[in-house]
Every structure is written in C-alpha cells, then in structure tokens.
Amino acid sequence: MKDLLVKEFKPKSLLNLADNTPPQARFPVIDAHTHLFGDIPASELVRAMDEAGVRVFLNVTGNVRLPYDESGYTIEPRDLEVYLDTYCRPHPGRFAAFTMSDFARWDEFTLFRSTENPDGSPERWVELCIRHLEQDVQQGALGLKVTKELGLQFRDNDGSMLPVDDSRLFPIWRRAGELDIPVLIHTSDPLGFFLPVDANNEHYQSLQEFVDWSFHGAEFSKQQLLEQRDHLVAAHPGTRFLCPHVANYPEDLEYVSRFLDRHPNACIDISARIDELGRQPYTAREFIIKYQDRILFGSDMPPRPDIYRCYFRFLETRDEYFEYPDYIGRWGHSRWRIYGLGLPDEVLKKIYHENALRLVPGLKPIYG
Prior knowledge:
14 helices, 35% helix
C-alpha cells in the first residue's frame, strides 16, 4: 500500500441507493444564470436544452466572449449585437442576455480609465456606463451583470481598491431601477477562498490548482465585501438586485435569511452552489421553501444535459449521498456528496421559471 495524495483519493460509495435522476425537469426551465463558454453553435445549445427540458438560456455576460485556449479560457469584450444576432434572433424564445456595460473590462483594473475616458474622470466614466447600458437595453439586454472584480480587483485612479458601495457608482444602480431591469451583482467568493490555504481549508485542492482563486489577505475581507453589497442594496430600494450563488454565502443560510428579510428588493439564484446546499439538505429545504418566491434557477455551467439533470435530481428527488459533476463543484470525489431536497411542485415551478418571469420582466415576451 502506498500513501495517496488527496487528489488521488476517489472512493466509491458502497451504499446500495436508488438513482431517480429525471431525464428532464418536471416543469419548463429558465436557466437564469449562464455564460457562453466559447463559441458553441446555437443549434448545439438548443439540442442540449431540449434534451434536458430547458426552455430559455439567459447569458448574463452577453457582451463578453469566453474563448478556450490552452490554459482554459480567456475573456474578451465583444459587441452585444454579436450575441443577439447569432443566438437570440435566429432562435426566438430560446436565448436572452444581460449586458456588463462598461464593467466588462479585464485589460487593466484601473476602472475609470478607458479610450473614451483617458483622463480617468469617475463622473465621465459613470456617464458613459449609463449611456452604454441604455443602448444595450434598447438593443435587447434584459439586465446588468457586475462581476466580483468590483471589490476585489477594480481600482481607483490612485491605486486603491474600489469598494462595492462606492457612492460615485450610485447613479448606475439608480438608472437600472428606472429602466426596470435587474442588477445581477456577484460579490466575493466561497468562504474558503478567503481563508489560509492549508490543511483546514476544504477548498484546498481547488486553490492549489487555481492559485489566483485565493483572496486570503485581500484588501477587503469577505465579511467587508458582503457588508458593502448589503449597504448598496439597502441604498437603492427602487432597484432589483439578483445576488447569485445563494447571495455568495450558502455556507451560512442564517445570514442569507437575514439578508433577504432586510432587503425586499433582493433575490438570489442557486447557480454553482448545489454542492454547498446539498450537504445541508434539511436546512436547505426549509430555506428554499420559506423563500420560494425569491429564488431563481441558474446553472453557471456549460449547457450539458448531465449537469442539468444533476440539478433536477437535487431539486426534485429525495436521493441520498450522490455525486455531482466536476463542473458543479470540482474535486467532489474527495470532498463530499449531496442529497436531494424533494421540493413540492408549487415550489419547483417558481424556481424553474415563474420567479424569473416576474423578477426579469424582459423574459416574459421571450418565454411566450
């Protein structure tokens, strides 16, 4: 017998348990949190969606491109019109998009400087962001997406980190409310990403492989980032905020409950976090039933039927101790397995499509 590395440890469960994975969702699904990884042909996406019972694919980064390269994928800006022309218009009722407006920048992290704003005027940048947002909405964007770079990487002109609730950005959030579009704002990351990368960190394997995922020692702690996000949401009661990944704190559903109770203009999605929810099935089931009107379905994953079916198994069945695909939570073999919630039909309908139609008004004419 030899010593095994953690990444080599892939135990097979010896439990004799039923597998009730649904081939399709019980009700039509709006995947309200997806990204287009590479230029996958629209016809291929439609086939995968039809196979799993997914009605609408909402690309929340509709004006960026994620092409594959040797290291995984790189992110490039592109015109929203490209996505609309390639996916939405040729396949009516199947594809939709959010825009990132001027937040879609990874060339440098000094946010306010751009070719249109070489002097780095924050006021000028905000004006441009709002103008481009309005143009994108007129073209067909259904919401605004803001990634975790705000608070973790975007810097002011003096090099200091921009807080999530920087008041100079407030006109953007107000304008989104006036346009009646939601703001999907990703703030922070899993709790383990902010802790030391050591033997006590349950995300050790992922942080070993992707060292830039670690934010231990970042300028703002996870708690500070969430406080900034919560202040931002509270300061704009006329704007709907979609807080993805279970408000980015599925490890603490008591906190998420308090957040939703205090902020009626906020809702969440479950994208890329069924690994966290599925290991606390009693608490998660009670939480989802209690907040059933404020939770959206999202995958955040490539539109593969096997991935969708794992989500459906989690939501619809009472299956026990089953694995989830690596795309949902990497290194699941050596971490943990999950349990199904067996949610009631009336809750499933809301999560699968009814809440999305209500909270993202632009989806209604697309869904038909």
